[in-house]
Amino acid sequence: MTDMIKTNDRTITLEILRYNPESDEAPTFGTFEIPYVEDWSLLDALEYIKDEMDSSLSYRWSCRMAVCGSCGMVINGKPQLGCETFLRSYYPEKMRIEPLANFPIERDLVVDSSDFIKKLESVKPYIIDAVDATKAAPKKKQPEKTSTGVYKQKPAELGLYKQFSMCINCMLCYSACPQMGLNPLFTGPAALALGHRYNLDNRDQGADERTEVIQDKNGVWSCTFVGYCSEVCPKNVDPAAAINQNKAQGAQDWALSFLMPRKGDK
Amino acid sequence: MSRRPYVRPMPGNWFMKHPAYRFYMLRESSCVFNLLYCINLLNGLFKLAAGPDAWNAWMTMQGNPLMVVFALVTLGLTLIHTITFANMAPRVAPQQVRKAVGDMPIRNGLLGGVVVVNIVIIALAAMGGTA
What we know:
heterodimer; A: about 270 residues; Ubiquitin-like (UB roll); 2 domains; two-stranded antiparallel sheet; 10 helices; B: about 130 residues; about 80% helix; flat
């Protein structure tokens, strides 16, 4: 790495929002001038700062290839993954790096994600079998089981929800959502998209159990379709679509509840 | 080491802070102008019922430069509303429908509908003018 740095004398400036809970009252920007290396990602640059300039710099990272969802941060105002953001896209302009918006800052670029984890759990993101379903009788036809005891699923049935299952929990959509900042109780894009993913799964019978969270005023109805969550999503999950499909479904269920109060039962 | 998470305040002018939010507010503001324009049209209908003098006064008012600017702004915002609505509609369609039909037919169907309705209205207005 050092050989590569010696070969060029170009530099790029990084402004990073720093916050040390032990000494700082509020976060302030720290400036770092680092060597400009064309094939460095922002994560490489942060690693350089931590190794060579300031070992106290805190940030989360793991896979370096946009699958773990750890290194989400706000770069020049846009929520992005540090590992797939390259210095060359900004050079010679400076880069301004902040922790994800709408989350409490734990330290530097590290945010407190415990509330997000609770919201993910609240939509029951797992297959609820007809046997385990606690509410109402299953509305969907139960798929056939194979001799080994697993459900059969056709490619088209997989295709229905696959997009919504690609989420890596990077929380970029939460950072992009202004409603999240205005109403911190909002369940939020990723969690609602995940609930929708299980509702669309033909093996699942738990839609009625998720309704309470999904159709709550802090569920899909807190969304105003700003749509920026889907724009920043690194996996094209399109959480805005998931949320707004549920609004349409909710409105339809509400209207039908007057016509069929017993849901078609006698 | 003690934890002391810092919660950043949401600025009151958050919608000015990002291009995506600014466009969102522009899109949503179309409803304000559409409401005002509808009130203006409704007022025109009452003036029509009230007799020729009231109607002519209302028609003269529509020619006021301020009213023309208002009508043009409303038209522009309504176009933004129409196009963004058509672009977003396929994503609100049930996933089963979306997968079966695809996004473009839903979008183009809506935009096509808008064009047809407008042609019919303009044709009726033109025929009314000659009759």
